[in-house]
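tl;dr need the bound structure. longer version: we got a ligand (adenosine-2'-5'-diphosphate) that a collaborator sent over and nobodys looked at where it sits. i said id run it. heres the input, straight from their email, havent touched it
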Amino acid sequence: MQYVELANGQKIPALGLGTWKLNDGVAREAVYAALEIGYRHIDCAWIYENESDVGAALTAGINEGLCQRDDLFVTSKLWNDRHRAADVAPALKGTLADLQLDHLDLYLIHWPVAQQSGVPRPETAADFLTLDQAPLAETWQAMQQCVDAGLCRNIGISNFSAQKITSLIEETGITPACNQVESHPYLQQNELFEFCTAHRIAFTAYSPLGSGDRPDGMKQENEPALFADPVLQKIADSYSVTVAQVMLAWAVTRGSIAIPKSANRQRMADNFAAAALQLSDDDMTAIAALDRHHRYVDGTFWELPDGPYTVANLWDEEKPAVDHVDSGS
Ligand code: A2P
């Protein structure tokens, strides 16, 4: 397995298992299968509502000798309703209890979006806190205290723009170890990738396969179909591998970490093997040309009438995310 080195020298396996959407009791079996296959990096979050199942699988794997705790890199994420400084360590301790761990390897602020304490799913604008009411810098300092207390080894952020990361560093002097964002050949995020690289912030690609199993409410009409891309298919055919493997090999080759989700043992094994696939420079160039800034996880779900969050202020992009290619293609 290839690794990405964090700024402090700790290493994170470049390919991990994503656990978003491992629901309905399949998480335990899937995570255990992943450990058997060789995965040592597991990406979790409180909001996925499966951390107890993940914890049961990790404990079984450790107790049955599949791996040791120190071989594992376990990430989890602080949910939006726990941004208040006093809520951060208790939230992390709850996650640790569910995961049956005494520390995390990485704890992330899941979104730059704050909600009232104890309101995990906002329904009206009043359920949100603005970033003036719950400044990200205060949440971030409370995250750092969790490192100091030994509850987690590294802290990072997710879904943060370069602008928000810059403010966080300026206001606190603490550089995130990692930024986890959506990324795949149709959303390469080159500027953000380069910004992170320049600041020694590891870049983790979530939804590296386009997250086709998102809930219907998170889907748009006429979404571009990554798996049907002829360029990716041609490259896959040339190596006798799958399109999914090409997408993951592309991510790892460019220096990203990728966390594909699968509940299927064969696909998990295929995805894991992709880290070893060497793509040629020509393949990398051909894939680079596929970028169309298409977000499958577009953030519109944070836009509620009269609420403080919009797609524009979420991503700090001048124009809302749009597909630059004709939707008919
Ligand atoms: P499944 O869980 O049945 O394998 P993402 O990681 O971008 O969120 O994408 C997850 C989606 O991609 C799921 O629908 C998952 O289905 C599917 N998937 C995962 N690995 C592969 C693969 N190797 N080939 C095809 N589809 C895959």
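gonna send this back to them w/ a short note. Residues 85-99 form the longest helix (15 residues).
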